[in-house]
Design goal:
This protein is of the alpha+beta class. It has 5 helices and 4 strands, in the order H-E-E-H-E-E-H-H-H. The longest helix is centred in the last third of the chain and has 8 residues.
């Protein structure tokens, strides 16, 4: 939204949902085009979505896959025990496993992440994103993704 207001992007497609303020209303952009090329960062931003993408929407304790709203962050080393909110200490956990682990260290509760949490590269996240079927993402993205898909013949 910031890029829209700063006129750094063109809106190509929109979701049906709106954002509102007392004096303003607009549809939420789903696809945007940058007006100037921005070199991708080698290391992606630390965001909730990117953590779930790194972990492939899989609880790192029970191994089950979940939808975004069914997952939470877990501090492998709890914050109260000196843990930090970083790539290397956060993993995806389901709503059943997270409270079971609670404020314990992994060795104390015998709950170890399936994969050691690490900071992924942008390329790793892109590779993970390609694992999901087109209907996993909003339909408006379809014309802009999956360039390696077989073309239809006429």
């Amino acid at each position: 939204m910031k890029a829209v207001f700063l006129d750094r992007v063109n809106i190509i497609s929109e979701y049906d949902e709106f954002i509102r303020s007392p004096s303003f209303r607009m549809k939420v952009p789903s696809v945007i085009a940058l007006k100037e090329y921005v070199q991708p960062r080698e290391r992606p931003a630390f965001t909730r979505f990117n953590v779930f993408l790194r972990d492939k929407w899989t609880c790192q304790y029970c191994g089950n896959r979940y939808k975004t709203h069914e997952l939470t962050f877990d501090h492998v080393i709890p914050k109260s025990r000196g843990g930090t909110t970083t790539w290397e200490n956060i993993c995806a956990a389901c709503q059943d496993c997270n409270p079971l682990k609670g404020n314990y260290l992994p060795a104390e509760c015998h709950m170890f992440p399936l994969r050691r949490p690490v900071q992924p590269t942008t390329k790793e996240l892109q590779a993970n994103g390609r694992l999901y079927p087109p209907n996993f993402l909003h339909e408006s993205w379809g014309d802009f993704l999956y360039w390696d898909a077989e073309l239809e013949t006429v």
